[in-house]
Every structure is written in structure tokens, then in C-alpha cells.
Amino acid sequence: MIDEETQEIFRQETEALIESLQECLLQLNSTPDDMELVTQVFRDLHTLKGTGAMFGFARLAEFIHDFEAAFEQVRSGNAVVTPDLIAVSLKAYDLIVALLEGEEPPTEQDAELKAALGAVTSGGAAPAAAAAAGDAAEEAPAAEGELEGWKLRFKLPPEFMEIGGNPVAILEELMEIGGPDTKVEALLDGLPALAELKPNELHTAWEMILPPSADEGDIRDVFMFHEDSMELELTAIRGAAPVVEAAPVEAEAVPVDAEAAPAEAVKTEAPKAEAKKSGGKKSGSANVQMRVSAERLDDIMDRVGELVIAEARLSDLAQKLNDPNLTEVVEDIQRLALGLRDTTMAIRLTPMSSITGRFQRLAHDLAGKTGKDFDFVIEGEETELDKTVIEKLSDPLVHILRNAVDHGLEDNDTRVAAGKPARGTVRLKASYSGADVLISVQDDGKGLDPEFIFNRAVDRGMISADANLSRNEIFHLLMAPGFSTAEQVTDLSGRGVGTDVVKSTVEALRGSVEIESELGQGSSFTLRLPLTLAIIDGLLLQVGEERYTVPLAAVEGIVEEPEEIRDGTESTTTVELREKLISIMRLREIFETGGTRADHPKVVLVRTGDQQIGLAVDRIIGSYQTVIKQLSPMHSRLNVFSGATILGDGDVALIVDVAQLVKAEGLDHDNKEQAA
Amino acid sequence: MSKEILIIDDSPSVRRMVAMTLQQEGYEVTQCEDGAQGLDTAKAKRFDMVITDQNMPNMTGIEFIEAYRNDPSSSGVPIIFLSTESEGDLKNQAKAAGALGWVMKPFEQAKLLAVVKKVVGA
């Protein structure tokens, strides 16, 4: 008997597999010659067949056997990818999904599809393509032992700077040898506690990855004076051996001898770099992965949050006691907590590509149903977001995408008549912006008509006919409950998500929706979401008697507050900084903090959207691990604060939501445009 | 501002060669004839780099390095030791005394320049 947890793991695994399968099939539609995709399809099917059989899906396994055979024909060069093959494959895919979900479609379907698959892959073989494909497949496993780069780890003697050495010059010299592809990382493990650290001693080690073009002799020459007084490991990174499981080959360590410069003896380390590089989906079996329930991750995140707070208290205490031994331990704990935090957050991050497959399918299906011919472009698939956020976004995005095609894009004839290219374009784009991630759906369709939206809202009794609304406010009516019509043009993916749910879902994730549209040119819906939900790097600021935190990722600089605005008492002002006019918000006035003014007040330059804004504060306390605690429901209307955090001394600092504050103070673009 | 380099060598021809090579590249060069004179000069003024020979009257190169490194003003000043192939272990002694690196005599101008550039920058 298979227990529930195992079933769940099977379900999760197959979900990922069929997602990948569908994506590859759709991609093959546009790039039929991509043998890597064919191989991936074959591999996905093979795994599905194997695990399916193990979990009692006999019919599934039997069906996939033939499906797989069809792609084996393609893989071995006896058949080619054709639109027909993709069409049949997608139907076969649907059958697989149905079978996995425990449905029992008529069994004739299996036979029909098998026959169809057989028919589309048995026809005309393309010998030339086949030969080429065959060659490619044979070449695929990298030639054994090919040099892929150099791994260099070095630690100069502690007195290096004392005797006039310049570590920066060493690094620069190495960068020159390696060129722009060189990667460098400082290893700080050897650093003593701050109290024992002498500023003229060097305790940092470095690890670099240099490209294969770097000459070993050149690299060693950089250290010619120091080889016998330093730690130096230079290792050639070789291509993976054909057998992936092969243990790394350890040769003799390099005899470090200044005279014997051309050291031939080199450690070889086989597959490590290779495994790191191939993070992608199509990397095959080298990636060992584990599935963990999201609940456990949440649990870890909570604990890490508590740990970070406890660590802050400890470090506060250590500072007061001024005991170097304690400080050393505290610094270790600090480093560990920080690492743990980053790892935990990274575990939770998932690339957008994990859900874009279903959008591709949706676009494919929508094109068929609506008869509108359009290109669906996905950009920034590698953008990563918290897993919870990504999952919750899927439905709202489906809705926006469907609207873009249904209501945004005109049909092809209308487009041509309007002087536009017949094929429309719908773009799904993800990108980072400061501490936020932006996900937008853009179409080049007919755009939103503010007048039409306004009138409909009046018709539905949502606003009065004499309401005075900005263009932006009118657009946002689209997402008010009760606006969207009941008629659904298509039944595709109709999950019953109303447009109002888009807004509420995004806002529940501490995000916002931005709508831009130009009549006749198209519309874009942008979801702005915070990168993480739990812990951020914050910059702690002193304003009067209060302390506030802003997300460090949004901070672009700190300057002295210009003399000419120091005595002002308006909540906002404008000043020329670095040859640009910048709006300054005086947090002292806005939050009415009281307390005495500092002698040397500062301005923190922060980015929100495409705007740079200055925050006038009294003092910069420093960067701070900010564990976000939600405000109580009673305070949730205070949207200029995205939460609060507990400081090391037990006090609370509010986290300023810069975007909201900018809005509240009327400094955002929409308002400016209106004023202008 | 051009970098200032102190060269300590009892051989006028070597001093001259070094000075000329470096001056052509825009470095400023101060010359001393032996370790003792070099020590006084180096303590009185901070140089961007010191180049010293070994075999000199009054004070050898290694003695100079030891004495200079005993003075806090030498902190961060790179010293390059001029050595000859036959002197075998000397360069290790010089390193132990606090030299950053060495150049083997006889040297080509290009080789000397390469080392100087590496140590103090162009």
C-alpha cells in the first residue's frame, strides 16, 4: 500500500513532468529542429511511464509506451517533428493528464492516438536531418577532460600589506588574465574578531574561477614572489567524464616552489563545475532534488525570523558588555544567521518559468478558439519569486492574459484596417525593480477606453455620473468588484476568477496593480510584488525619537541634507541633487516624530518604480536584518507602513512603504501629470 | 602625481641603469650608495617603493631591510631585493626580513619595469 505522502510526492513529480512535457512540445512547434527538446520530451515520457507503472497507472504506462516510441523515432532520426506530430502529441498529452487525474476516457481514444502517433512518425524520414541529428546526439557528451576553466584559491600572508603588497593589484592582475568571465569570491572565514583585527593585516582569502583561455603560467606569475609564503591552490576544471558518478580524481598537490615555475602537476576535479552550471530544466539527471512541503518551509522561515531577532538582541548585549570573546561568537552567529536566512529564502524562490508553460498552452488554445493570430512572447522567465507568491499569481495572470486576448486584441482584419500588423503581440514580462518584482502582460490591441469604462461603471451604479476621476482611477474601476461582465467569451481555463480577484490577490501579497493604456495602441497590466515576504535587509533610520526601516534594496544612496532645505518645515520639498531635481519627503514632519534635530541630517535616496525620492532623516543607524511582522488588523489601514520589525533592544521600528508614502504625499507620477 | 622610488646600490652603473629605466616611464627616482645612507633617506621620507642591492659597504641590503622594517614608517612600503643567481638562498633571507619580492641580476629593463609596475602601478 502506498501511503499518502508518497502519493503526494508522485503527484508533485508528475505535475512537474507534464508541465515540462507540454512546454517542450509547444516550443518544438516553433523550433522543430531542436534535438535537445526532442530528447527532453523522450526523457519526460520515459520517467512518466516508469513512475506511472510503479503507482498502478497501467493504462497510462501502456499508452506512454507508444507515445515514447514515436519520439524515439524522431530522436533516432527516422522521423521529423511536424505540426501534425505536435498536434497529435498535445492530444496525447491531454489524455495523459486525464489518466493521471483518475478520469476514465473511452479506451478507443488510446488506440486512435497510438495509430495517429504511429502514422505521423512512420512517413518520410529525412536522411540528412537524421544523420545530422545522430551526429549531434553522439557529440553531446562533452569530450573527456576538455579544459573548462581554472579554479584558483589563494590566501596571501597576513603581513602582505605591511610589506607593501597590494591585494587589489593582485586581483586586478588576475582579472586582466581572466577577462570579464572571471568570477571572484572573497572568503572571510579566516577573519579574526573585530576587536583583534589589525587593519594592516590581511586575513581574506579569495576563490576565483578563470576561463580556460587563462594561461596557467600567467596565473602563477602573479604570485611569483609569494608562492612559498602563501596558500595557493590552482585546479584545472575539466569536462565531465562520460560516467557522471565517477569520483573526482585527486592528483598530487602542487609542489609550491618559486623556482620551478612551470608546475605541471595539477589537481583535477571533475564534475563539480559542470553540475553548478546546468541549473536548467533540461540538465537531465545530474541535479539531485528533493521535494519539501511548503508548510515546512514556512515553518523554517518563521524560525529563521525568530533567530534573526534573537541574534540582534545578543549582538546588542555583546556590544554593551564589550567582551571580545563574546563578540567573536556573536559575529559567528551573525554570519551563520545571515547565511541561513539567505539559503532559506533561496529555497523558497522559484523562477517564473515554473508556471509559464501553462500560459503558453493557454495562448495556444486562445489563438485557436478566438481565431486571432498573435505572437505570445515571454520575457524574464528566469526572474525568481517566492513560491507562495508564484502559485497565487497563476490564476490572476491567466485572467489578465485571457482578457488581453479576448478584449484587448482586435481580430486580424480590424488590425489591418487600423494600419497595424495583422498579427498581434501579447507579452508576458517579468523583471526586478528595486526590492520588487514586476510582472506585466502587455498587448498591442485596441487599448482601454476611459469613457466606455466610466459609463459602464455609472450604469452599474458603482460611481455617480458626476464623479471626478483621474484616468488612472477610471482604469482601476476595471478591477472593482461587480464591474466585469458575466459573459465569458471563451470557456478556456474558466476558473471563475473575476477581475476584482486579481486586485485582492495581489494586494494580499503586499503588491499592487498598475494599468497603463493608450487607446488604439494597447494596454499593459503590471503586477508589482515584493521579492520576499518574510525577512528583508533594511536600512534603519533615526527620525526624531523614532526609528524607521526602509528596504535596503530600494536605497540608492545617502547624502548630507543640503543646507538650503534644512530649516524648512513643509512635509515635502524639492532640491537639486547631483544635477537632478529630487523630491524630498521630511519624515520628521510627515510622521510628526518630535525630538531634537540632528546637527548633520541626511537624505536617503530611494527608488520607487521609475522615480527617485529623497527621505530626509536625522541619522542613519545602519543596515539591519528586518523580520517583517504584520501590523495588527487595527492598523492595517496605515498603508504607508508595510509592517513592523522588532529591534535588538526590544523596541519596534515601522517599515516604511516608500511607494505608498510617495502616493500619500502626492508625489507620484499620475498626480504630477495631472498637475501639469 | 608620479610615484617616487628609492634605489640603493653601490654600483653607479646599476643605479644609473635602474634610474634611467624608471625615469623614462615617469617615475621619480632617488639614489643612495649604501644601506646606511638608504636607511636615513627612507626613514626621512616615505617612498612608494624601495629597491635595494645586497652587497654594499656599511650596511648590506638584508641588514637595511631588517633595520627599516623595525621602523614603523616602513609599514606598507614595498621593498624589492636585487639578487644574483649565485647568491642562492639570499632572496629567501631578504623575504624573511621583509622584502616583498626580488629581481635577479643581471636583469633586462623590461623585466625590472614589469616588476615595478606590478608593485606600485604605472
How would you describe this structure in keywords?
heterodimer; A: 676 residues; alpha+beta; Four Helix Bundle (Hemerythrin (Met), subunit A); Alpha-Beta Plaits; 5 domains; 5-stranded mixed sheet; 20 helices; 22 strands; B: 122 residues; alpha/beta; 5-stranded parallel sheet; globular; ATP binding (chain A); phosphorelay sensor kinase activity (chain A); nucleotide-binding (chain A); CheW-lke_dom (chain A)
Mean pLDDT rating of chain B = 86
Through-space gap between termini of chain A: 71 Å
Q: How helical, in percent, are the residues of chain A? A: 40-55%
Q: Percent range for helical residues of chain B?
A: 40-55%
CATH architecture of chain B: 3-Layer(aba) Sandwich
| Number of DSSP strand runs of chain B | 5
Q: Biggest interface and its residues per chain?
A: A-B, 15 and 17 residues
- The order of strands across the largest sheet of chain A is 2-3-1-4-5
Spans of chain B of 5+ residues with little confidence (pLDDT < 50)?
Answer: none
CATH hierarchy, class of the largest domain in chain A: Alpha Beta
Give the helix/strand class of chain B: alpha/beta
Outline of chain B, from the CA principal axes? globular
CATH superfamily label of the largest domain in chain A: Histidine kinase-like ATPase, C-terminal domain
Number of domains of chain B: 1
Rg of chain B over CA atoms, rounded to whole Å, is: 13 Å
Give the count of structural domains of chain A: 5
The fold-level CATH name of chain B is Rossmann fold
